[in-house]
Design goal:
With 508 residues, the chain is mostly beta strands. The chain is 5% helix and 44% strand. It has 3 domains: 237 residues, no CATH class; 79 residues, no CATH class; 166 residues, no CATH class.
Amino acid sequence: MSQRKLTGAMGLAIVIAAARLRVVVAAISLMALVLLPGSAAFGAFTADNWTGGTTDFNNTANWSLGHLPTALGGSGEQGVISGLTSNQPVLTAPTAVNALLFTNGGTLSSNTAADILTLDLSAANGTALTVSTTTNISANLAARASSAGTKVVTVSVTGSNNVLTLSGNLTPNGATWSLGASATDKIVLSGSNTFSGTLLLTSGVIETNSNAALNNWSGSIQLGTNGTPASATLRLNNTFSLTQTNLIITAKSNSTVDEYVEVVGSNSLTVANLNLTQVNVSGVSDVQFHKTGAGTLVLTGNNGTVSKSGSGTSFNPTAGIKVDAGTLLVNNASGSPTAASIGYNVNSNATFGGTGAVTGAVDVKSGGHIAPGASVESLGVGWLHLEAGSYLDVEFIPSANDTINIAALNGLTIDSGALVNLYVEGSTNPWTTAGTYALINYTGTLNGAASNLSVANPQNGLDYEFATDGSTVYVTISSVSVPEPATMGLLLLGGLGLIGGSVRRRLN
């Protein structure tokens, strides 16, 4: 796979890539984090093997060439650290090396946080850190400062089912970090990262195991690259609020790519806009973003975009964003966190909701839920399609209830078999107060019918009727009439009389 440079404002980038792609992030200000494929240039290095006479990384006697791996000649030297060596290296001072290769579970630590390892490639771009087995690097890592801001420093995880844990801090210094993993490999960020810029994820799984791994990040998170199509997953085991960060989904020409953000458990990720881009398109290119995991993704921005370079077909507007599990909330104050041409598919056991608005289409599939508001509030969408078996979850208080506002003309479709849950605010207790309540506001023609709706949580003694006045879908809740006891007695006596008369006629 070829490596592509992530462009943006001056600063550092970190990239993650390999055979498959699932999460990528774009550059906005000072730096970018990128995971890219492979290690095509490894063979160009001259090996400088760690001999491990002692644990001191900075002791030149512990290296086979008699000095630390330098940038002498060609692509320079590569320090090879094997886990089979008895003494694993420990940094004892701030140190710069050309490149390192970890094999057989080799590790690297440091005496103090100030003992930072700077990866100082001789070439303008290249693979500075290669991991071919499960490895833990607890030392803080930095890239060589570059006044031009064009240096790309790649970290690559190769092989199968390997895990690289970076528990130290990552420092930019104006370069681009390129972190790459094979499809079955994983990179774990468990340190405290405070830099700004772009987090670009292009393959394998990138996982957070620290509340500080992204919380101090400002910039963009990009899933996908304009390079070879692959799939990447950003797996969040923590809660992060990145309200100044955009989530960017990227696809290259003539490819179909799926990118994933998995929010685990009850955790959440808050970002600004969700932007989709295509690069060098000459034919049909389709990129699909998947929200997975039981947690919540929150969008708070007001200027989501879609952009395309080249003459090819743009994104499929009805399949751009798939909510496969958990919840996706739009809580923007104005505008839309996604472009009007980008649609949402809400799949079974997933929920789309929030207090803001999107200008695109929302298609709620069977088993999927749309839930306006955080309590009793409204949610705006461009178009809404409630398919058979889908759920509209509405909360009520005595003076108001949730509503959905449809912006597009003729933008509401209700299929037969669509369901409505009527809840008391903040609970799943059924709402039972009689009255007529507005649920969905729209303009133009309603596709389908309001009567296609039915209550998913009906209560005994209540009758429910759905109707429209041409611009609003209502539900009317009323009590079912129950005869008084005296009336019931008369009806019973009358029925017995009829039965007795029929018996006498048969006997006669």
